[in-house]
Amino acid sequence: MKPLRQASTRPVISYKPRVEPSPPVHAQRLEGYQDVYQIRGQYVAFVLLGDTFKQSPVFAYPESAQRWANQTRQDGEDW
To answer: Phi and psi of 20, rounded to 5°?
Structure first.
């Protein structure tokens, strides 16, 4: 008989937005979007909460980045 498999003991890693002092200089802001920037052909949102910016994960579409920014801003207002 085969031995039973061990349960995975790896910790679960969840995404925490990076905190930045400001969007990077090389980021190009997209027209028509409030918080979306293009960096190296990918779309990233920066949301100002308090005195720092939160950076989103990388998205393939600017609409997705803007949705993330809107949701993050709503969650930040609850603080």
So the answer is: -120, 150
Query: CATH number of the domain at 18-77, out of 3.30.730.20, 3.40.47.10, 3.20.20.10, 1.10.10.60?
Result: 3.30.730.20
Q: 55 by DSSP, 3-state: which? A: strand
Residue 54, beta-bridge partner list: 19, 47
Between CA 20 and CA 16 the distance in angstroms is 12
35 and 47 in contact (C-beta within 8 Å)? Answer: yes
- Per-residue pLDDT tens for 19-58? 767 788 888 999 999 999 999 889 999 998 888 888 899 9
pLDDT of residue 31: 92
| E strand intervals along the chain | 18-20, 28-29, 36-39, 42-49, 52-55
Answer whether 0.85 is exceeded by the pTM. Answer: no
